[in-house]
Write a structure and sequence with these properties.
- The complex is a heterodimer of chains A (384) and B (341).
- Chain A has 384 residues and is an alpha/beta fold.
- Chain A has a domain of 258 residues: P-loop containing nucleotide triphosphate hydrolases (Rossmann fold, 3-Layer(aba) Sandwich), CATH 3.40.50.300.
- Chain A has 13 helices and 13 strands.
- An eight-stranded mixed beta sheet of chain A has the order 7-8-9-3-10-11-13-12, with helices on both faces. In chain A, strands 1, 2, 4, 5 and 6 form a five-stranded antiparallel beta sheet that branches.
- In chain A, strand 10 and strand 11 form a beta hairpin.
- Chain A is globular.
- The two termini of chain A are 37 Å apart.
- Chain B has one domain: MetI-like fold.
- In chain B, helix 6 crosses helix 9, helix 8 packs across helix 9 and helix 11 packs antiparallel against helix 14.
- The longest helix of chain B is centred in the middle third of the chain and has 37 residues.
- The chains are: A alpha/beta (384), B mainly alpha (341).
- Chains A and B meet through helix 2 and helix 3 of A and helix 10 and helix 11 of B.
Chain lengths: 384, 341
């Protein structure tokens, strides 16, 4: 099993608003491996998006605060990174695709300018013109390259061995070179007429097109971790399918570690290798996607799967889960799901069940074992 | 879709066309006040030979008002604003005084933009914290200062402290040189005389700073408000996610969009400024249109100059309308969502 590129350990996030403290994420642990997709699924308000935005430290702090836990990215704990150094970790390490493609592009700039800005940031970091993040036990790969300066690269012209390649790499690139690279990325996201799209403003593009541009923008920084926060939720079903197919193809191509957040079980089932089911800020069940969905071992997962509309059966009404997501400011003692749980017993009201591996499962490499945060996982298959 | 420069011409042309009725309306109002409401029109308005003798005037006044109106328009179209009762034509004086005011207002506007807008960004960035409160204290104190008080304090206390002149646009020691534009700094530059340019700038600083300080609030407040509107938006988050530093996130991505509203308000303010420099010009003895207007209505014991006052009213109205037009065009240019056709 290889080392994860990003590891979230026991992460807890709370929002302090007015008098109340909302525990949006409590004790979440995750491993992201290159080329593997980890899906997070859960109801609205279960802390999925908070988790997604906390990883690149995008949450406004305050009101949000990271209580405890670590986010280890290539050996550096991102929780400890000071605010002013955050741009350095976001730029070329972690990319993100947001839920609302309609509002995620700046309305004042053309597509060309917005994508080439991302490429420029990566390029200048690569060349050492802009300082990269140094800190933690292992520095990022790109900071290992020799630091080049403008004067330094000019002086290299006289030095014979390998000087030409060095100079070519370090030279500040021209606008047309950036443009060509933008075109490459637009083609990568299967845009048919990139030359025209380049010159357009975001408001002149359709939702699916904008989401493609967002994906191109995120990929153009060559991130080693890509976080997709409900990338298809705001799109029409047909466009959703297109974007999803595109994402699946791209994930195979770029070999990035992906954290895929969605409330849609079908989307997660199609995209992810591993899934974490979130409820009230905790991961209640985790494991290989096929295993979790075919043999759920947490009553919440079971209920969630039962509530999902089934396109093959149309007899009878859709089943809905009784009760509501608990108020994050007043979480019930013990297991947060116990008020809605058919298996609830006194033990569930007293202690929070730990996320424990189930007996007799052997996961493929880089995928965590099937775990459930339920005291009675063996009784779950017997539920209706 | 898409925006072609040729469409911009159409866009501007349309806005210009919309101005025509406004300007005609202003002139009509002025006509009413000058010709229908007053008895001694001839002695005040047509004394100069350029518009005819008194006898000529009597003849025109006896004519139906439609004829008078058309004659009034014809005179204005020829740039003839009439003359003072001493026979000095008003037009050339206005042409000499107006650019000086324009220079003063542009300098004040420049200060409002380079100081007021960044202050608004800072206020939004530290919204609710002490940085915000300090900025608010600064612009509110400007807003709360009466113009005459601010101007006098600047002239009496600040000027000696900073060693800046307080009277006129040039030092008295300046040897007269040809003034092409009647903007002191521009003329000195055109004459290629750097010491004179420095002199002109030092004369410009205080009145422009007073004007800017008093009107800064509008720029800062608008920028702060629209920045607060823009900052929580998703594209600001995307910009942060790209790895841009906070400076570029604020000034390239957020401010670019927040400026759209600020520009509109600044344009309207600029029009008001052109018409509202009277007190500052009077205190600093700035040879601008405000001072001319003050003298024309008999301020400071001067002989009232009726034709001059009317001309100034028309010019002020046109200035306000023109500033609005410029703001409107800038809005269209800054916001790509505005269709030029």
């Amino acid at each position: 099993m290889t080392d994860p590129v990003l590891r979230v350990e026991d992460l807890s996030i709370a929002y302090t608003v007015g008098a109340g403290t909302f525990r949006a994420v409590s004790g979440v642990s995750l491993d992201l491996h290159p080329g593997k997709v980890v899906g997070i699924v859960g109801e609205t308000g279960c802390g999925k998006s908070t988790l997604a935005q906390a990883i690149p430290r995008l949450l406004p702090e305050p009101p949000a605060s990271i209580g405890h836990g670590r986010i280890v990215f290539r050996g550096t704990d991102l929780v400890q990174v000071p605010k002013r150094k955050l741009p350095m970790i976001r730029g070329t390490g972690i990319g993100m695709i947001f839920q609302e493609p309609l509002n995620s592009l700046n309305p004042a700039y053309r597509v060309l300018d917005q994508i080439s800005e991302s490429i420029r940031i990566r390029h200048y970091r690569d060349m050492g013109y802009v300082r990269t993040f140094v800190g933690g036990e292992v520095p990022f790969d790109y900071s290992k390259r020799p630091t080049a300066t403008v004067t330094g690269s000019l002086a290299k012209g006289i030095i014979p061995d390998g000087a030409l390649e060095e100079a070519a790499r370090d030279r500040l690139r021209t606008r047309s070179e950036f443009r060509n690279e933008v075109l490459e990325y637009l083609r990568l996201v299967r845009i048919n007429d990139p030359e025209t799209i380049l010159r357009l403003f975001p408001h002149e593009l359709s939702g699916g097109m904008r989401q493609r541009i967002m994906i191109a923008m995120a990929l153009s920084e060559r991130p080693s971790v890509l976080i997709a926060d409900e990338p298809t939720s705001a799109l029409d079903v047909t466009i959703q399918a297109q974007v999803l197919t595109l994402m699946k193809e791209l994930i195979d191509e770029v070999n990035t570690a992906v954290l895929f957040i969605s409330h849609d079980l079908g989307v997660i089932a199609e995209t992810a290798d591993e899934v974490g089911v979130m409820y009230a800020g905790r991961i209640v069940e985790q494991g290989p996607v096929a295993e979790v969905f075919h043999d759920p071992r947490h009553p919440y997962t079971k209920a969630l799967l039962r509530a999902a509309p089934n396109r093959y059966k149309s007899d009878g009404p859709l089943s809905a889960m009784a009760g509501n997501v608990p108020n994050l400011a007043k979480l019930p003692d013990g297991c947060a799901f116990h008020p809605r749980c058919p298996l609830a017993r006194p033990a569930c009201r007293a202690v929070v069940p730990p996320l424990a591996p189930l007996a007799g499962t052997s996961p493929p490499p880089d995928i965590s074992a099937h775990k459930s945060a339920c005291f009675f996982p063996d009784e779950v298959p017997g539920l209706p | 879709m898409g925006r072609n420069p040729s469409d911009l011409l159409i866009f501007i042309g349309k806005r210009l066309l919309q101005l025509v009725p406004v300007i005609i309306g202003v002139i009509l109002l002025t006509f009413v006040f000058t010709h229908l409401d007053l008895t001694n029109v001839c002695s005040e308005w047509y004394t100069h030979a350029g518009a005819g003798t008194i006898a000529n005037c009597k003849r025109t006044v006896d004519q139906p008002w439609t004829t008078q109106l058309s004659e009034y328009f014809v005179n204005l179209a020829h740039g003839n604003f009439g003359a003072t009762q001493f026979g000095t034509p008003v037009g050339p004086s206005v042409a000499a005084y107006l650019p000086a005011t324009l220079e003063l207002v542009l300098a004040a506007l420049f200060l409002m933009i380079v100081v007021g807008i960044p202050l608004g960004v800072v206020a939004a960035q530290y919204s609710g914290r002490w940085g915000d409160h300090l900025v608010r204290l600064f612009y509110l104190s400007g807003w709360a200062t009466p113009t005459y008080l601010g101007a006098v304090i600047a002239a009496v206390f600040l000027a000696p402290f900073l060693g800046l002149p307080t009277r006129g646009d040039f030092s008295t020691a300046t040897v007269p040189f040809p003034q092409y534009t009647h903007m002191s700094v521009v003329d000195a530059l055109l004459a290629g005389n750097l010491p004179y340019t420095a002199d002109a700038i030092s004369h410009l600083i205080l009145p422009a700073a007073v004007l800017a300080f008093i009107n800064m609030g509008i720029a800062t407040r608008m920028t702060r408000a629209s920045m607060l509107e823009v900052l929580p938006l998703d594209y600001v988050r995307s910009a942060r996610m790209k790895g841009l530093s906070e400076f570029w996130v604020l000034y390239k991505h957020a401010l670019r969009n927040a400026l759209i509203t600020t520009t509109t308000v600044l344009g309207i303010t600029a029009g008001g400024l052109l018409a509202g420099t009277v007190v500052v010009e009077e205190v600093f003895d700035w040879p601008g249109i405000g001072q001319y207007a003050y003298d024309a209505i008999g301020g400071g014991g001067s002989t009232p100059n009726f034709a001059g006052a009317i001309a100034v009213v028309i010019i002020f109205a046109i200035a306000v309308v023109a500033a609005n037009l410029i703001a409107d065009i800038l809005y269209g240019v800054l916001d790509p969502r505005v269709d030029w056709r």
